[in-house]
Design a protein that fits this description.
About 80% of the residues lie in helices and about 0% in strands. With about 200 residues, the chain is mostly helical. The longest helix has 26 residues, at about 75-100. The relative contact order is 0.10.
């Protein structure tokens, strides 16, 4: 079961990780950008940070899942470190830009606060993971990187929760408000229980 869940996580991470490529081939009015006001779309800062968020967030998602295979980490330590550096850099860019665009989230303050909180927790847990590995505290590093990747996986769970809730409630507006929190809070709780069980072993 553990191996199956790992494979499922990897497949979803790879599929959603390349999602930003869609913006190179699909007219923006048919994408998420179609829900934004013309005034906001004219903002160079917002558009730059939006694309930074989705591109580097997708990259973090794409490369990060591989880090959690125990045998991979043991056998390919050098590659693990290279991927780790790429992951951390990607998260730093995506989380900071995500915090900024969170202030302009669809749905106003409720969804905005959900995404801003996600960005802050994502940034902080990743930085703590970096700090602890530099202190050679491997166990703490692993714990915080599990929290970090749980936040990264919000890109996946958002795309699972939103269509589900929208189809169940037929209320896309309130579904989006809920998903701004549902996409990451359960992920972090799962990460907490994983870390708690790992600490016992």
């Amino acid at each position: 079961m553990k191996k199956l869940l790992f494979v499922m996580m990897g497949v979803l991470a790879l599929v959603i990780g390349v999602y930003p490529l869609m913006y190179a081939f699909v007219e923006h009015k048919y994408t998420f950008l179609g829900s934004k006001s013309p005034e906001l779309l004219q903002s160079i800062i917002w558009k730059t940070l939006f694309f930074a968020h989705i591109i580097f967030g997708g990259l973090a998602l794409f490369v990060g899942w591989r880090q959690f295979g125990d045998s991979f980490r043991t056998k390919y330590t050098g590659i693990h470190r290279i991927i780790g550096k790429l992951y951390i850099l990607s998260v730093l860019i995506s989380s900071v830009s995500g915090i900024y665009i969170g202030f302009y989230a669809n749905g106003g303050i409720i969804s905005g606060m959900g995404f801003i909180c996600l960005g802050i927790i994502w940034l902080v847990t990743t930085l703590l993971g970096l700090i602890y590995i530099r202190k050679e505290s491997v166990a703490k590093h692993k714990q915080f990187m599990i929290y970090s990747y749980a936040c990264t996986l919000a890109a996946v769970t958002l795309r699972l929760w939103f269509p589900l809730l929208k189809n169940l409630t037929h209320d896309p507006v309130n579904s989006y408000l809920a998903v701004a929190w549902l996409c990451w809070v359960p992920n972090v709780l799962v990460a907490y229980f994983i870390n708690k069980n790992t600490a016992k072993t």
